[in-house]
Records
---
Amino acid sequence: MKQKFNLNFFLLFAFFSFLILLGRNEYFIIVERFVKLICTSCIGI
Amino acid sequence: MKLKNARKIAQIAAFAISNLGFLSVLKTGFVCPFLYCHGCPFAVFGCPIGVLQQFIVNGQFPLFTIGSLGVYGMLLGRAFCGWACPFGTMHDLLSQPNAKRSIQARNYWYTKYIILFLALALAWIALDTVFCKFCPSGSLFAAIPFRLLYPEAVEFGLFFYIHMFTLALTIVLALLISRFWCRYLCPLGAIAGAFNKVSIVNIRLDEKRCKKCFLCLEACGMKITKLEDIGNSTDCILCGRCVEACPEKALSFQMKGSKCKGC
């Protein structure tokens, strides 16, 4: 099986990885404000 | 191992991993690649649609979530819908694609993009997570477990009843239409589906082997209607039912960019 290098794929993947890196602080916002604190109004309670 | 069994194991594993958050330290700030409400008391990950709305409400640009969804999509496309999503698993349990009672509804593939647009636009206009208040996945995996866990500490609100209604409606429609939610309404499926054409893992058709019997399309839970759409359409969830159904072994999971001798 041969592998063909795809530059467009690589650039797009790098772009999304870069976005994750840029927004790495959001990880803590998500865990502290959303996952640990349940939005009870969202589920109607 | 048969693909069907592998898929079942993957779906059970995904559900189990999503619910490891019974200890606070096990909760993470990653967004999951499928629709699973972080309102669930045991949630480990954030729901991507919920997080996108929350960031819009807060006036922030969700770089981390968009990047994560992009990476998930580029690696596996919509395979998470077919192999991991607990709400998709519920649909699999409720309706088999070949069941006689299943209605072969026409393919309005674009409706899930309308739902995605509405979810984000309403969050921006109303400054609230409007979609979450109607989401049937949130009903099943958050509202009901929360109510069962804390029966005395909480009261029913209007949106709890709305949640129960949307869940009941989705279940009825899922009984009639195979993968109803995934085909027509899932906003996360809309995002993931857009990556099917560029994802690493995909399903490839060997046209030399194909006898055009269309057993693959009959087996398809998402009711894809064209051979060329397998693996490429925004509806394909890469579940592999078509791969299993093909008597000529013309369909197979492949890494994109690879060339096999038989193709």
---
Amino acid sequence: MLSYALASSALLCLVLTLEQFGIPVLIGVPGHVTVLATQIYLLCRFPPTAYGLAAAIGLTLAAITGIAILLQRRLARGGRSVVTTGKAGKITPIPLGAWRWSVNLVCGFYIAVSLVLPGLILLYTSLIKFFTANPFDAAFTFRNYIYIWNSEETQRAIVNTVIVSGGGALVGVVLGIACSYFTVRLRPTGYRVLDALVMLPFGVPGIVLGLGLLWAYAYLPLPLYGTLTLIVLAYVTRFLPYATETSGARFVQLDRSLEEAAWTAGASRISGVWRILMPLSLPSLQSSYFLLFMAFFREISATILIFTASTSVLSVSIWSSFEQANWGLASALSILAMILMVAMMSLLLWVMPGARRR
Amino acid sequence: MGIAVRNLVKSYGALTVIHAISFGVADGEFVTLLGPSGCGKTTTLRCIAGLETPTGGSIAINGERVSDPATNLFVPPHERDLGMVFQSYAVWPHLTVAENVAFPLTVKGERDVAGGVNWALDIVGMGKLAKRRPSELSGGQQQRVALARAIAARPRLLLFDEPLSNLDARLRDRTRLEISRIQRELKVPALYVTHDQTEALSMSDRIIVMETGRIVQEGTPRDLYQQPVNRFVADFIGNANFLHVQRVGREWQLENGSPVEVDPATDRDDGRSKIALLRPEAIRLDDTSAQAIAGQNRLTGHVVSGMYLGPHVEYIVEVGTDHLRAYSRSALAPGSPAILSFDARDCRLVDDVAQPEARLQHAG
């Protein structure tokens, strides 16, 4: 039973690693370590550009992750069917005894290394004038923050980020509701195709999706290239499974008769969805909005190939200043992004208490 | 007026669960669809509500056609002007009692919503709990809210889908009386689905017995109990004893040769195999000292077991190869001989069909 879960999470990690773009592009590229995802970016961004080669790499990458996702879902299903036959058991904590402190220490160390330390370093580099041999000798300045305050370009990126995350997440949630209603309730012939189509982008790395969208809308007569709509389209496509999984899981829990009672009481189908299904699913919808908002806020891989000067977002701005070796500004922007994100998270949790439940 | 169902057919792919049934519900009449699970009764009800799309036949409510696949006619449930009570109550947990009941009134754009809510809640005796949430109510109270919601907009038809099966026995009896009283007060036609014969017998003006997607028999509760057409109906409604009898010359005999006089009205030679129905309460059970009663059947048997129930003792008596249930107030020891007396008119020949033909294609 455990082997199912282990194999399935190993595959999931493989997919997430293959898709990873932000970290290898920041750490890997300067050291000439390239992975498939960053290779696509480099081929498209710097001369000599080779879009054909990039597309070929993209398809290969998508094929690998796609197969892995298919395998993972099959494994996860296999594991689940085993679990559901048993009775729901009580979870008994294993007493660790003397080991307890060492385990706590390991966890604390991990958090310190992966979260606290980088955060402090970011704050530090955003405030120093220049790097010194002894970190404690540094002279401090607010010039990066003052620059951000005065930079119209950065402010536009911040506004864009908020629009794309806030508005895009709403679009995603609404689309997610529609898809789940089709696949869970209406089940018209061929609903499985829709189900699979929604899940498909899950196996496509963001950079590949971005490449596809770049090609599609740079050449198609649709006036989407260079608009925020295109960015929202990319994000919604990429993260729609988050929304459908959350709302679909809730719809399955709600007995059909709740809606049927609304119809026999004189409510149309739409009215039944709006007045019965939506309020009863509100916590799930809120948490799916929350998930999408967070995902959209930090997304970079799908944006990096399709953004233009007027549609840049915060994650791209950070990357650009990093690329120009302006580490102080990159750090200041990162600090700003973190503060903004925490503020938005708190605001969302305050407005939508239901989002916390998951 | 009421409901008129003509040749209703419902199929799921190759599987047909309702085989061209026809019936009606008159204005103000309370009709019950009775049958074991999978007999198609709930599907029939859902077709009338518009929650299922029929495959064939027509349905009319108050003379207005609401479904007729032949002419592609299908009126959606919200335009059928009906009230429905579900087995699962289906009370909306995010609304208060009053908001639940107000729902049909507001969606239909009624002017006096508050008045309608009070009227409906008063009828089911829930006026004091109007501000409560469904989670704060017992199962019986929730089902009353569902009932109030169903009647609030004064629909032209009430549908019940096993509304009592989730309630405990005592509550079921009370709610049963309540539903009957309300339906008679409102004089609105009602179609009620159940597998519980007590509910069907006690509430209905007329009962329609269904089995494997077909109507086996319909009639008043008294008709069905006293004159069932076959073994299935006799067994399903009330307690039934069956005597295996065979025609020998001009008379009917048990397998041990004892002659049995049966109701002459049922003694038809239609070529179908017959079995004799004898209700337990028609049997008079005595010890061997009992005198023969003129004009009555008299059979001798052995007491197999007795169960003391208070008003009487329920005995199982072996007569020939058959085991019969009979009631008596006297104490009879297991193993002791006993005399069974019964009127010939109470011993009816019925078709020996426990399960009508189409049992094999069992419906889900």
